[in-house]
């Protein structure tokens, strides 16, 4: 055979063009957009609202700014837009204004779901995940061999919308 069956590269999705120059073109590309539960479950990584820990949310804590730093200078409108665009949060305005307005009977479950969506929105923003995905999708055609195939595993509506548009 002489050709590698599997090539794994630890890099950002948006670097698919550089990877393809060195290792491509590829017959098949699998993009798994999920976040590791090991990252989410570790309170020191700052991905969870269930345990005390820093509000970080960076996939690579060596790069960029933390979610706590991002929130220092963001406007209510920007924050509301982030919650809507990144996680379809129905209480985006209320949360952005630091007031959770949820009917009492729905409060516990709604607050739990809203916390998950808010953390998701912040994580997506801090890591530029949609921009990275957009860059990756834009560069995919040049990274594939003739007749090559792509599979993209999405985990929420924002990723799904971007992938379906491409």
Please describe what this structure looks like:
This protein has 166 residues and is mostly helical. Helices cover 48% and strands 10% of the residues. The protein has eight helices and two strands, in the order αβααααααβα. A two-stranded parallel ribbon has the order 1-2. α1 runs parallel beside α7 (129-143). The longest helix is centred in the C-terminal third of the chain and has 20 residues, at 107-126. The radius of gyration is 18 Å and the shape is elongated. The mean pLDDT is 80.
Question: Can you tag this structure with a few keywords?
Answer:
48% helix, 166 residues, 10% strand, two-stranded parallel sheet, mainly alpha
Report helical residue fraction. Answer: 40-55%
Instruction: Indicate the multimeric state.
Output: single chain
Helix/strand/pairing class, anyone?
mainly alpha
Shape: elongated
Strand percentage lies at 5-15%
Q: List the helices and strands in order.
A: HEHHHHHHEH
Strand order across the largest sheet: 1-2
* CA gyration radius, whole angstroms: 18 Å
* Low-confidence residue ranges: none
For the biggest sheet, the summary is: 2 strands, parallel
Mean pLDDT across the residues is: 80
How many helices? The count is 8
Terminal-residue CA separation: 33 Å
In terms of topology, how is this protein built?
Elements: H1 16-23, E1 26-32, H2 37-40, H3 67-72, H4 76-87, H5 92-96, H6 107-126, H7 129-143, E2 144-153, H8 157-165
Helix pairs in contact: 1-7, 4-6, 7-8
